[in-house]
Model the fold of this input.
Amino acid sequence: MLRDTLKTLLSAYGPSGNEHAVAETVKSLIAAHVDNMHVDALGNLIVEKYGTEETGKRIMFSAHMDHIGFVVTDIDEKGFLRVHNVGGVSPRISSARHVVFENGVEGVLYCQPVKGEETAMKHLFIDIGAESKEEAGQYVLPGDMAVYAPDCFELGEHRVAAPAMDDRCCCALLCELLMYLDEPRNTVIGVFSTQEEVGLRGAGVAAYSVNPDIGVALDVTAWGDTPETKLPAISLGKGAAVKFMDSSMIASASVRDALLKAAAEAGVPAQREVLPFGGQDGSAIQRARAGVPAGCISIPCRYVHSPAEVIDMRDMEGALKILLQFVENV
Done:
């Protein structure tokens, strides 16, 4: 079930600021399992599962729908599309990649010859097969966004690769949490947030509106288990990670410790994550209004922000057990 939900969400188009297709997919998966859902002004999909206790807490979980992409800035006379990054894109690994636009137009992202300088976004272009500016303009216009084409495939028994794993794997995790919860004592608010990759924008707006007692972000984290990569000290298949800090936040000790306790009680491994860079929705939740105790559960992910981000389904399954126990404990 979790793997099927993941694959469904990975196929949806959704660069930052254009997450509506992902939101519609999420709605179709969880509509029968929640008590309320709406889309706010920034495009966040906010759903609620009401708690049975009047004095129960309001727990906000946030997983972002958007992923990195490329926005068309200009079309040259020969029909090639010049682009700029939307989020943290590496020009070095983007050349010769299959990309797709929302309307289904496909292209090849490539890099022009570079002399005496490092490859940068200004050197990249998309070839959609057009032979002139006029022809290209019939299919794509400046402001349109492309993403790495969805290409989900299995690696061995437990691992899955795809370009939008950050953060559709956690959207799938949040969907499954809402499906599994049966009359929770506390009210659970699921936020499928927008524009995380360009500054945690959606989660900040949503947290202000939701006004939770506790917040938990669900996101991927980097890896330290491939050749010559040691930090962060995180490995695939060794369990979901409980974040201690990254460059955007220091996790609230009460939430961090409660997540570690939930892992122990659920009988699943949990890694302790210290990430010397990066950021996630927990930071925006933590700073909402007068402040919210907040933490983060991370899914270890190799090759983050690439066309083939890799996760281990055992980490996903463990994370779901942690979250179910966490909701019960609060």
Q: What stands out?
A: The mean pLDDT is 96. The chain is about 25% helix and 30% strand. Residues 2-67+164-329 form a domain with the Aminopeptidase fold (CATH 3.40.630.10).
